[in-house]
Amino acid sequence: MSPAAVPHKPRVFSLYPLEPSVIEYGSQFFDLTVPGDPDWKNWREEAEAVMVRSNVIDADDVAKFGPGLKFVGKHGVGIDQLAAKEIRSKGVIIMNTAGVNATAVAELALALTMTLARNIPAIDRRIRSGATVDKNAEGAVGIQLTGRTFGIVGGGNIGYTLGKMLYGAFGAQIYLYDPVLSPTMAQKWADLLPSSKLIRVDNVDDMMPHIDVLSLHVPLIESTRGIIGEKQLKAMKPTAIVVNTARGGVVDEAALLKALKEKWISAAGIDAYAIEPPHVDNYSELIAQERVVSLPHIGAASLDVIRITAIAVLDHLKDAFAGNPRDIVTV
Q1: Whole-model pTM?
Q2: Strand order in the sheet with 213-216
Q3: Which of 2, 110, 123, 156 is 20 to 30 A from 223 in CA distance terms?
Q4: Regarding the domain with residue range 3-100+303-321, which homologous superfamily does it belong to in the CATH classification?
Q5: 8 catalytic, yes or no?
């Protein structure tokens, strides 16, 4: 085949490191550039597509986009770190990989719930500090999750997967709030749970007095910013647990600290902070609460999921360059 007949491989820049097997896979279809390559810094000007994970693309980056950039492929779902409006104003399509990491994030939400229900982190810290803790000590007695009532905010892939786990493991009753739930997902929920176990609410406030655990699974957009604040937390049971594996900013962190200190709720598992990664410089009081578990947004940080999701981004880009973009983000 003559050089002129060699098919064009679109220039794709990954803004995050890829493991060798992913690079090998992607290089079949793309001229793939990854961090550490000599010309990686030229991604704004030279890319035809960009892969992002937790990377920030701000308005200054967008202003430098070259004319060839057509697609941004998001590893995961949330795009709050992207200047999405500015990106779309350039005619660039943003695609995410909804559902690929759903099981991993749901598993972490479940792990946080189970850990806090039995107060495992606080008990462990006391023992490590040299204290003698027996089963009758204050805080050593937790709650059983079987038969409890859970509130899920966001009924998409992650929320649904968690609901499936909760019902299967604990026979849970679930309150669900999602005003933009698609008909397809609504039917999946209806097929998953008997009507006596699924209560859909039109207002997030309606579930608060009834639930033992609140788990959040929504993107950070204007309608979800601070959706859980002082009013909602004050309405919860004093034994309730709040779990946020979604995005920082969805929960009002000052209100959450107040709720914990004043014992409106029992505990909180936080995998998503407004400022990440969480550090005592920013969250000294919240992190110090005995019944808080803090994580640096690791919901999808499973080795197999990272690889699978990166390949999913490449597959999305392959389809997009073939004229069939999917999972286009319009929010």
Answers
A1: 0.83
A2: 198-200, 173-177, 149-153, 213-216, 241-244, 267-270, 292-294
A3: 110
A4: NAD(P)-binding Rossmann-like Domain (3.40.50.720)
A5: no
